[in-house]
Amino acid sequence: MRARAFLPAVLLLAVGVGLTPASGLAAQTVVPGAPPVAPSGPDLGTPVGVVAGDTTPIGTITVVALEDPFAGFAEWWPLPPDRRFVLAEITYENTTAVPQTIANDTFWVVDAQGFTHPQSFPPRNDAELANRPDFLGVAGSTERTVDPGTAVSGAIVFDLAPATAIAQIVSRPTLDYVLTDLSVTLLDLRPTRPGYAESVAIAGPDGAPLAAVVAFPPVDPLLDIGPFVTPEPGVRYVALTVSVTNTGTQPLPPESSDFRLIDRHGIAYRNLTLPTSEEYRAAAPDLRGADLAPGETRTGEVGFRLAADAEIAAVVYTPPGGPLESRFVVVAEPGVVPNAVPAPTSNPVAPDPAVAAVTPDPVADTPGCEGVLAWGEALAPRAFAPIVAYTEVLTQIGNPGGDPGALDPARLRQAAAELRAVADDLADDDVPAIARAANDAVVGSLHQQAETFDALAAAIDAGDRVAIDAAAATAAGLFDTFGEGDAYNALGAACPEVGG
Description:
The chain is an alpha+beta fold. It is 25% helix and 25% strand.
């Protein structure tokens, strides 16, 4: 599938970077207790089975290779000095009889502290792209369609801090289920894994202690339910007892929704209030309640509704203070082997280089729009390059709970200078006449953001909290509205090939 919308792609990437947690700041250590569970993969080159929400097999995904660090970027791109990029080669095999669509937010890195990192899109050089095509087919695409019975291969890139240790690469496709989603481990590099009844110490984004969590062996299945409740066919109830201790200095709100169970297929089950009897609830109180004061511990129960044949592979905790997808802290694993599948021994479906490269479908230029599509596809990565280089800026500006006052003024001024350089470079481009107004709008937006970053740096130097918050709000607003306006709308209406 060919992506023809260049500005929406830039916006999608900006949002993704803005929601990326600061890397390498939190700490997760295992306190000695029960013996850690032995590693069980999957390793590089191991095909991992992928299922639909009803556990029907739909294909396999293999992390074929990992290049860490990766440096094959376009020569014009200003490689940020304080970032590390990692390239993974992925093969996806569709074993069904229908096409499957893979979105660009499917693959994530989970680091050793439990923070998650989405796919990044730095511009790679031509030789790199020819040798290892982008997994999505065309750089900047938002999705890719895999035909029935075929396998496609390609590269994806992740943007990490230099000291960030990769723990896992996971596939987390979006599903429209109320109580479940998918989180399939494709590669696991952890040297040890916590078991039940083992205390896991967790730190917050600032590196300070936050909590200690213990997950005990669950009651599975839970049979002590209310007298008027009968479990539906094909499901069972599970009660997980957890202990949460506030090891920080601020109140900690323990929530049942902070915990999920993941089965061997990667299906992640969210919590559910169980229909237990009054006697059971009195003996096993719910985890929820008032905030924990520093040093306080609460032990309570978290309920789940699982498929009758689901095998629990992991208990996952998401500390408070961020969205569910921002942390992925495994607090217990019973040692269930993940959904690995043996490599084919005969008649394998080999990746088709022609399919992997994705020959673009011909797009007929609307009269007067000649060259606009090529201009737009070249503009997107260049306009986005300085944003990729400063993920910590967007983390503090664009996320609830972020503190723009904690940013380094020198970094903000450096980002502003690079925004201006890119804007000036774009202004000098040979742009199709019909796209000139849109190009000028991009240039103007980059200059506005540069001015806002300079204003924020000055406010931080002056210690002016009001000015800091005002500049940060302006910067966030500029990112939110980037790509909107009459110039873009007019170009999209005149040249449909850039808007679909």
